[in-house]
Amino acid sequence: MTMPSWQDKNYGSKIRAALWLETVVGLDNVFTKAQLREAFPDVAQIDRRMRDLRDHGWKIDTHREDPTLKQQEQRYAKKGAEVWIPGQAKSDKSKNGLTAAQRNKVLLADNFLCRSCGIGVAEKFEDGGQESQLDIARRKVKLPDGTEEVQLVTECNRCRVGGRGREVDLAAMIRDVYKLAPLEREVLAAWIKADRREQSTLEKLWGAWRTLPEASRAAFEQAVANGQA
Predict the structure, then answer these.
(1) Exposure of 11 by Cβ count < 10 A (0-12 exposed, 13-18 middle, 19+ buried)?
(2) Residues facing residue 152 across a β-bridge
(3) Are 118 and 197 in contact (CB under 8 A)?
(4) pLDDT value, residue 95
(5) Helical spans, DSSP H, in 98-194
(6) Distance CA 130, CA 68 (A)
(7) In 3D, which of 102, 100, 33, 109 has the Cα closest to residue 71?
(8) pLDDT tens digits for 34-45?
(9) How far is Cα 147 from Cα 124, in angstroms, rounded to an integer?
């Protein structure tokens, strides 16, 4: 079957955008918002129509999903349903999409923090430059009764990319809790209540020691063994 032309205005703008990705951009290639708008000067909301393709299984990455992309760049990462074929344009949004109310509920429950690294919305990463953006990720969780379900969690743009496919064994975590001494469980409960944990001097020293060159590690080890300055 011959693929229709993306310039055929008998098709809707969403279908034309899909055809443009397939025939002009090409899978795994990068395009800019300016190139998209230049191709569709007659469509006022072509950016939105392009995003609508995600409801049909198309994957179009931005710098939120792929930090290597620039602010104005996007990558055509995966082809979805061939929406230009009659019967293929049915949206699966009811299964995969989130309403604004659902997103806000998850963000509020997670205190507007990335649950993987703890960064807040619009905060700068430690390496400088880029500000964080929070989004909602889906996490597969193994429950104590042995069943699995997908739950929603807040993650920043970096952690969401690195954490794709991550699964959580809640049952194993709860078993480990029962192994803790009473004092350890009390400390853990305080961290959970505060939703944060400050590293002790001991932990900070351990983390810093692991970054030292070999000669400095040996000198530090000797200082620890001596027990005094």
Answers:
(1) middle
(2) 138
(3) no
(4) 46
(5) 100-109, 157-162, 170-178, 182-194
(6) 11
(7) 33
(8) 999 999 998 888
(9) 38
